[in-house]
Design goal:
This protein is an alpha+beta fold. The chain has 19 helices and 8 strands. The protein has a 4-stranded mixed β-sheet with strand order 1-2-6-3. The chain has a two-stranded antiparallel sheet with strand order 4-5. Strands 7-8 form a two-stranded antiparallel sheet.
Length: 519
C-alpha cells in the first residue's frame, strides 16, 4: 500500500487530533449532498473514515495510482481525500466531452490555500473562473501569444536557438541548465525585452526556484490537508519540513520577481532605452496602479509557466533522441531531403514538409507528459455524465498519464513510435497544438502557439546540426541511461549523460557567425 511522503505524514499526525470533528462535518455534508441525488458518483476505491483514500495514494506519483484505479473501476473514477471529492478522468474522449463541450461548467479552479500562503496567487493559471481577472489576463496572452503573433517572433526563436546549439556543443554538465537558459532567455526577451546572461542570470535562477517550489505545493493531493483543515494555516509550517519550510523564501521570491524586471522596463521607458516587449507595450498606454499590478502578474505567469514547459519538453526531446538513435537518424534524413545542406530549417517555409519532426514532438509529449495530471479544474454546478452524478465544487483532474497509455488509442503505449501520429501517406494527423498536454476547454494553455514554435525551432535545428549520442566513460564504454523523472505538478528528466557530435559543419559555422555578429 502506498503511503504518504514524510512531510504529509507529519501534517496528518500533528493536525488530525484537533480537527477530526471538522473532517467528519465536511465528509457528512458531502455525503448528504450525494445521497440526496438519484444517481451515484463515478465508481472508485472504498476509503477509510476521515482519511478517505489517502493511505492508498502514492502522493509523489498520484497519476500512477489513478491509472491503476482506472483499469479497475473505469475511465472516469471518483476518489475522496480528507473529505474532499475528486473525480479523475482517464480518457481523452471523456475529457473533451466534459472540459471542452461543457467548458462553461468545468473551467473553474479549486481553491488551494497553499497558493496564497506561498505567494503564488498572482498566477493566471490558478485564477478562479468566471471573473474579470481571468478574462483580462487571458485577453493579454491571446493578443501577444496567439498563432499569428507567435510566428512574428521567428528571428527571436532563431537567435536563441543558435545560442543553445553552440552551448550544447561545449556542454559538460546536465542539459537542464542549457534548456532552461534557452527557454528563459527566449521568453524573457518577449515579455520584458531583457537579454538574459545565460543560466546564471539572477532572474532566470529565481524564476526556476519559484517554479520548483510551486510544482511541489500546488497539487490537490499536497494541499488537501490545508483545504480540509484550515486551522493548519495558523501553524508554523516549518515544523513540517521539506517544501513546506520554504514559505518565506517563496513569498520573498514572488515579490522580487513580480517587480524586478517590470520596474527595470519602467525605468528604461523613462530614459528611452526600452526594447519592444509585452511590458513595454503595456507601459506605453494609459494605465493605473491596478493595471500595473495585473500586468506584473500576467508577465510573471507567462515567464514562469513558459520557461518550465518549454525547457522540460526540450529536455525530454533530447532524452528520447539519445535513447532512439534510429528515430533521430530518420528525422535528420528528412531534414536533409527538404533543406539545403548550407541552410537551416525555417519554421514558415519548411515545417509543412517535415511532418516526421512534428510526429516526434507529439510522441515526446505522449510518452513523457510534462504535467501528468494537468492543472485541476472544478465544477461550477452539478452535472450528470453517463449515469454518474458530478457535484458542484468537485475537483476534476485529467490524468494525462492514463490518456497517454490508453491502449485503445495508442497500441503498445510503452513503445516510443512517432509513426502512430502519421497518416498512411505520411502526413501529420493533428497539429501539435491540439495535444492534450496543452489542456482543455476555456483553460487551454494560451501560450501553446509560442511554445510550439519555440520547441519546433530548437528541436529541428538541433537535429540539423548535431547528433545526440550516449556519453562514454573513461574506458570508452557507453554509459547507459535509465530514464528517471522528478515529481510534482510538472516533471522533467533527472540528470543523464550524453554527448553531442557536429554532423553538419557548414550549418554549425553559420550559426557561430550569426551569434558572433549579433553580439
Amino acid at each position: 500500500m502506498a503511503m504518504f511522503s514524510t512531510d504529509t505524514t507529519q501534517i496528518l499526525v500533528l493536525g488530525i487530533p484537533c480537527i477530526v470533528a471538522l473532517a467528519a462535518a465536511v465528509r457528512l455534508s458531502t455525503r448528504k449532498r450525494v445521497q440526496g441525488h438519484a444517481l451515484p458518483l463515478p465508481p472508485g476505491p472504498r476509503g477509510l473514515p476521515f482519511l478517505g483514500n489517502a493511505l492508498q495514494l502514492d502522493v509523489e506519483h498520484p497519476w500512477l495510482t489513478y491509472s491503476a484505479w482506472g483499469k479497475k473501476y473505469g475511465k472516469i473514477i471518483s476518489s475522496r481525500l480528507l473529505g474532499i471529492d475528486m473525480i479523475v478522468i482517464n480518457s481523452e474522449a471523456i475529457a473533451r466531452e466534459l472540459l471542452d463541450k461543457r467548458s462553461i461548467n468545468y473551467s473553474g479552479r479549486p481553491f488551494i490555500p497553499t497558493n496564497e500562503i506561498y505567494g503564488l496567487d498572482f498566477n493566471t493559471v490558478l485564477l478562479p473562473y468566471p471573473g474579470e481577472a481571468i478574462k483580462q489576463h487571458r485577453q493579454i496572452f491571446h493578443d501577444v501569444l496567439r498563432a499569428e503573433a507567435s510566428a512574428s517572433y521567428h528571428e527571436m526563436f532563431t537567435k536563441h536557438t543558435n545560442e543553445l546549439i553552440l552551448n550544447l556543443v561545449t556542454a559538460t554538465g546536465d542539459l537542464q541548465s542549457q534548456t532552461h537558459a534557452y527557454a528563459g532567455s527566449l521568453i524573457m526577451a518577449v515579455i520584458y525585452g531583457h537579454s538574459a546572461h545565460g543560466h546564471d542570470d539572477p532572474f532566470l535562477a529565481g524564476a526556476y526556484e519559484l517554479g520548483e517550489i510551486g510544482k511541489h505545493i500546488t497539487s490537490p493531493e499536497k494541499a488537501a490537508m490545508f483545504t480540509a483543515f484550515p486551522i493548519l494555516e495558523k501553524m508554523p509550517l516549518w515544523i513540517f519540513g521539506g517544501v513546506y519550510a520554504k514559505i518565506e523564501r517563496s513569498r520573498s521570491l514572488a515579490q522580487q520577481l513580480l517587480s524586478g524586471l517590470f520596474n527595470e522596463v519602467k525605468a528604461q521607458m523613462a530614459n528611452g532605452t526600452a526594447k519592444q516587449s509585452l511590458v513595454a507595450d503595456f507601459l506605453s498606454q494609459p494605465h493605473d496602479e491596478t493595471g500595473e499590478k495585473m500586468m506584473k502578474a500576467v508577465a510573471l505567469t507567462g515567464y514562469t509557466a513558459g520557461i518550465d514547459t518549454v525547457a522540460s519538453v526540450m529536455h525530454m526531446f533530447m532524452l528520447a533522441m539519445v535513447l532512439h538513435p534510429e528515430i533521430q537518424e530518420r528525422a535528420r534524413a528528412e531534414i536533409n531531403r527538404v533543406v539545403k545542406p548550407d541552410a537551416m530549417p525555417c519554421l514558415a517555409d519548411d515545417r509543412a514538409s517535415l511532418p516526421y519532426i512534428d510526429a516526434i514532438l507529439w510522441e515526446v509529449l505522449r510518452c513523457y507528459p510534462f504535467a501528468p495530471l494537468g492543472v485541476p479544474h472544478t465544477t461550477s454546478n452539478d452535472d450528470v455524465y453517463d449515469g454518474y452524478f458530478i457535484p458542484k465544487g468537485t475537483i476534476i483532474m485529467v490524468n494525462q498519464w492514463a490518456l497517454s497509455r490508453d491502449e485503445e488509442v495508442y497500441p503498445d503505449p510503452s513503445r516510443f513510435d512517432p509513426n502512430r501520429h502519421l497518416t498512411a501517406d505520411g502526413q501529420l494527423k493533428e497539429p501539435f497544438t491540439t495535444h492534450f498536454a496543452f489542456g482543455h476547454g476555456r483553460r487551454i494553455c494560451p501560450g501553446r502557439y509560442f511554445g510550439d514554435h519555440g520547441i519546433w525551432t530548437a528541436a529541428t535545428a538541433i537535429l540539423a546540426v548535431l547528433r545526440i549520442n550516449h556519453a562514454k566513460d573513461s574506458n570508452g564504454n557507453q554509459i547507459e541511461i535509465k530514464p528517471e523523472f522528478t515529481t510534482g505538478l510538472g516533471v522533467h528528466p533527472l540528470p543523464f549523460q550524453c554527448s553531442f557530435e557536429i554532423v553538419n559543419s557548414t550549418r554549425e559555422q553559420q550559426l557561430r557567425n550569426s551569434v558572433n555578429f549579433s553580439h
